[in-house]
Amino acid sequence: MSPHATQDTAVPTGTNNWWKEATVYQVYPASFYDSNGDGWGDIPGVVKKVDYLQSLGVDVVWLSPMYDSPMHDMGYDVSDYENVLPAYGTVQDVESLVEACHLRGMKLILDLVVNHSSDQHAWFQESRSSKDNDKRDWYFWRPPRYDEAGNRMPPSNYRGYFAGSTWTWDEKTEEYYLHLYAKEQPDLNWDNKTTREAIYNSAVRFWLDKGVDGFRVDTVNKYSKHTSFPDVPITDPKSYIQPAIGMWCNGPRIHEFLREMYDEAFAPYGDVMTVGELANTPDPKNVLEYVGASAKELSMVFHLDIGHIGMGPSLEEKYIFTPWKLTKMKSIVEKWQSFIEGTDGWTTAFCENHDNGRSVSRFGSDAPEFREISAKMLALMMVTMTGTLFIYQGQEIGMINAPREWPIEEYKDIEGLGYYREAEQRSENGGGPTRKENIMDGLRILARDHSRLPMQWDDSEHAGFTTGKPWMRAHDLYGEINVKRQENDASSVLSFWKDVLRLRKEYRELFIHGAFQVLDYENQETFCFVKSRDEKRALVVLNFTDKSQPFTQTEKTAGMKLLVGNYSVSSLGTLKPFEGRVYM
Ligand code: TEU
């Protein structure tokens, strides 16, 4: 705690960078709005909706990858950092989007995907062409090993994120190459300075020169590997490949690399906003090493814990749904709300993105009678949280997971399908639900696909997303859940989000900069917390159940008045199902 910080002071507002008080809206280009009827969202479509985003109260648009790509991982496999996927448009379209945002006093950040490129990138095509190609060392190539029977084996026993080994054999040069994700996503060798310089030029400076205001940095703590690639201990006895995230998360040179990228690529352009996607870093003091202003690495990070609620405890169990209690969410939220207090760091507030199921389905209830009220309750939690707020397309209208009865054929995501197909191959030891059935159950709640259904604009065919055949099926309930139906309805989820986003700015000292403290830690039904700064206080009260609950903190409301709630009428001592209230 710095000597100047009082008990309540969270973060000195002196370093009030523009991005601290911003509300950021994540656009997933494939599913946002299709302007030319080809069934794919596109950048001219985003330009057409910038006024809608401004009316919501959005300050910054985060555009997920729109670069040229074979689309194995929906654009997180970049084949040309300096070009745009033709289905999404052109480089000029991105420049038009920058201008459309800047004209309205808004900003635009892109997605920086530089842990790996696509295997179709010219760099990899050269690297794989021969062992003595001057780009050979731009990726990780290693010779095979052989087991006692003389069978060729990969250099190490690592499991990748999409199931399967992190190594793929290349027949031409008779070596394996490393890919933490799909085999079409070879890892770039950041240990090679020439590679880093090429990344800074092609993926960063090229877009900052076009007026882009920053980046969401993909897999930000995975660039420094333990390059001897030792085998890891066996934790999954049923498999040769083993989770090995410690071999690439927070590696030996990661801070050197991120500091260099800050000094060489970001800092020359002024106050560039960067938000890193930080995985597997449970200790807050290690996170501060990335986001402390004095570290000069990143503005802030997403800590993925909240996205992993309900997932299994290990990489291979990720899509085995695991029941959770509210205390788990409280401990996660409290940890990543409080870790910056008394420091020069900054934090983020989010509960949805393109990699996770919908928050109403996961943390509220998508039952017809509770869908809207729980969406508003979650909105109250988000807008009162400290840090930069991120909302994901469709969250503002209460979009929900795909219907449980959709078959696996409607799921498109490489990660979930990887787990499903791996389960199909695993021999079952009979009795009880098979791994495949368990994985399917998990995907119905947790799959990344749920956030990638077409944005629901109106009740015309395909939810007004496209006049063509959408690349992914629109939700069956788009007639009930859509922007047009909510825009002029004062009691809608969308109207509620607009109102509470305004309140967040009006009470920024408390909601954006306040200290966070949980009041009812052991209560598994309600989540009550206080935001405080100097003598100011706000009390946030959330019922996470579909039943009425006693409000146990009534004495804490003494001297306070109800600022906002998601029910028009409420009685002090009882919280209605999914009732949320903010007292000031
Ligand atoms: O995700 C990083 C990642 O490892 C994800 O699997 C994440 O940990 C998990 O799915 C959800 O919490 C980033 C991108 O967000 C993701 O879309 C890409 O597939 C991945 O990197 C590879 O670029």
From TrEMBL:
CDD domains: AmyAc_SI_OligoGlu_DGase
Keyword Hydrolase in annotation: yes
Organism superkingdom: Eukaryota
GO terms, biological process: maltose catabolic process; sucrose catabolic process
Position of the signal peptide: none
Family of this protein: Belongs to the glycosyl hydrolase 13 family.
Domain Glycosyl hydrolase family 13 catalytic: 26-452
Keywords: Glycosidase, Hydrolase, Maltose metabolism
Protein name: Alpha-glucosidase
UniProt EC number: 3.2.1.20
Reaction(s) this enzyme catalyzes, per UniProt: Hydrolysis of terminal, non-reducing (1->4)-linked alpha-D-glucose residues with release of alpha-D-glucose
Molecular function via GO: alpha-1,4-glucosidase activity; alpha-amylase activity; glucan 1,4-alpha-maltotriohydrolase activity; oligo-1,6-glucosidase activity; sucrose alpha-glucosidase activity
